[in-house]
Amino acid sequence: MIALLTRDLRLAVRAGGGFGLGLAFFLIVVTLVPFGVGPEGGVLARIAPGILWLGALLACLLSLDRIFALDFEDGSLDLLATAPIPLEGVVSVKAAAHWLTTGLPLVLAAPVFGVLLHLPQPAYFWLVVSLMLGTPALSVLGTFGAALTVGLKRGGLLLSLLVLPLYVPTLIFGAELVRRGANGMDTQVPLLMLAGITAACVAVVPFASAAAIRVNLR
Amino acid sequence: MMPELGKYTVTVMGSYIATIALLAVLVALTLWKGARVKRALDAQEERMKKNG
Amino acid sequence: MSIWEYANPKKFMQTSSWALPFVTVGAVGCLAVGLFWGFFLTPEATNFGSTVKVIYVHVPSAMMAINIWVMMLVTSLIWLIRRHHVSALAAKAAAPIGMVMTLIALITGAIWGQPMWGTWWEWDPRLTSFLILFLFYLGYMALWEAIDNPDTAADLTGVLCLVGSVFALLSRYAVNFWNQGLHQGATLSLDKQENISDVYWFPLLLCIAGFVLLFVTLLLLRTRTEIRARRLKALEQRERMA
Predict the structure, then answer these.
(1) Which residues pair with C45 in a beta bridge?
(2) Average confidence (pLDDT) over B32-52
(3) Does C239 sit within 8 Å of B26, measured CB to CB?
(4) Which terminus of chain C, N or C, has fewer Cβ atoms within 10 Å?
(5) In angstroms, rounded to a whole number, what is the distance separating the alpha carbons of residues C8 and B41?
(6) Are the CB atoms for C121 and C110 separated by under 8 Å?
(7) What is the mean pLDDT of residues A172-197?
(8) Are residues B41 and C221, on separate chains, in Cβ contact within 8 Å?
(9) CA–CA dist C164, C132 (Å, integer)
(10) Sign of the C-alpha dihedral, residues C58, C169, C173, A162?
């Protein structure tokens, strides 16, 4: 499994694009928002938590269709399916690789982009915490969407339609956590809910993804 | 015959019309697709019977 | 004699063609009487004025929107566990009906909300979760359309329906937490005296019965169409092979 993880990471790094593209997309979203809503600091500070979360979520979505597509095309997914490790494990590793190449850079870059949006001082800590807790769920749910659409020619748009509704709870609690952090309110409830959702997703969703892949390889 | 709906005429009529229109579209599409598929299937079965 | 007999497409076609006239007449009858009664013969409510009449279309469609998803969940499970094709096709046939019901609930709600709450749309928990439910219906239908192989499509949409159900429910509570709403509580409960008086209750029951029967009628029709389409596809394939 470790070998698979390092292989996926190496492939992502060699193909370039991986981190770069997601981060660049995130930066563009954050840059465009002030053009849309006007440059007043007060407004930006109020909507910053939501925008940062949305940007991270969309940037995450961008690279989902590549999770399985390449392996499906060159046949290595068939090999992985017949490998001694269970397919659920393969899916989990794929999700972990996706998170390390997309989610983690977003988490690290988010505070920097927060400056652009006048994010209030106390919110920075909560922004990093919420993204750190929430993005693994995004990656795991993303692998589920990617597994459903892996055999399709133009699965990209369909993938977004399938995955985005699944992101709703994570987005709600993640953005709420940052908002409460920014206003100095009690953060315990959204924090626990966000962590709970992520834990449940990481534990359960790989089984659904693996089932979908088995169907697609049949 | 028409009940007095007062200032809410548009609201009540609008929602009834919207509902009935949407349901009518759904029913029409269902019937249309059903008829089309049935016709195609009948034609296909006929042809296969002829060819043995 | 067991319910699994109807998993045989032929048996299903026979039974449904026998049952269709009854449910059709029932649906048309209940809807006609219920809507007529609700529209023409009910008095105005003290605090809602004549807008109270909107509940005769709003409440049944909202109930059906949720119940149809539950029905799809059950049929998807039956397909995934026992692999009866009719079950998968019934889930496929139900989705567009559920989507239209959700749309009706949203639209009538918006039309009603305009004079009562002073806004067409409010990010209220019930409204928001219905919008999310609508998105789930769209995704489910899009996935059916996108996949060529019928068995693969049935499997994948079944899995999506299971996961979607969990997340639809989760979203419902997440949304509740996110914003406290304007929407009044449930209109119906077993303890009817508490909520709504008899004058409104009976036509509403009729309308609900009408919507349920309409759903059954459409479901039977659409499932029959799906079965025929499947057979047509198989025949065409056999012809090409020969």
Answers:
(1) C49
(2) 86
(3) no
(4) N
(5) 19
(6) yes
(7) 86
(8) no
(9) 10
(10) negative
Highest mean pLDDT among A71-75, A101-105, C104-108, C175-179: C104-108
* Contacting residues for C13 by C-beta, under 8 A, at least 6 apart: C224, C227
Q: Two tokens at C52?
A: 């109270």
Which backbone phi and psi does A118 adopt, to 5 degrees?
55, 40
Residue C190: predicted pLDDT: 43
CB contact under 8 Å between A162 and C156, yes or no, is: no
Question: What is the rounded end-to-end Cα distance, in angstroms, of chain B?
Answer: 63
Count other Cβ atoms within 10 Å, centred on residue A129.
19
Chain CA centroid to CA C3, Å: 22
Residue range A31-45, pLDDT digits in tens: 898 888 887 878 888
Q: Give the count of alpha carbons within 13 A of C9, CB side only.
A: 15
| Residue among C156, C69, C79 nearest C105 (CA) | C69
Confirm whether pTM is higher than 0.90.
Answer: no
Least Cα distance to B12 among C131, C187, C30, C48 occurs for C48
* Nearest C-alpha neighbor of A99 from the set A56, A151, A53, A70: A56
Measure CA C34 to chain center: 19
Best of A154, A166, A167, A194 to disrupt the C interface by mutation (most C CBs within 10 Å)?
Answer: A166
Residue A159 main-chain phi, psi, to 5 deg: -55, -45
Terminal CA-to-CA distance of chain C, rounded, Å? 38
Alpha carbon distance C162, A104 (integer Å): 29
Q: How confident is the model at residue C197 (pLDDT cuts 50, 70, 90)?
A: low
DSSP lists the bridge partners of residue C49 as C45
Return residues 175-234 of C near B (CB < 8 Å): 214, 218, 221-222, 224-225, 228-229, 231-232
Residue C19 vs residues B28, C16, C90, C202, C220: alpha-carbon distances, Å: 20, 5, 16, 26, 9
Chain C residues lying within 8 Å of A212, measured CB to CB = 155-156, 159
pLDDT band at C133 (very low <50, low <70, confident <90, very high): very high
Contacts of B13 in chain C (CB under 8 A): none
Instruction: Give the span between the Cα atoms of C226 and C232, in whole angstroms.
Output: 10
Residue C71 touches chain B, beta carbons under 8 Å: no
Eight-state DSSP code of residue C53? G
Chain A residue numbers with beta carbons less than 8 Å from the beta carbon of C168 are 165
Token couple for C169: 């429910």
Residue C156 carries which side chain, given as an amino acid letter? L
ipTM of the complex: 0.85
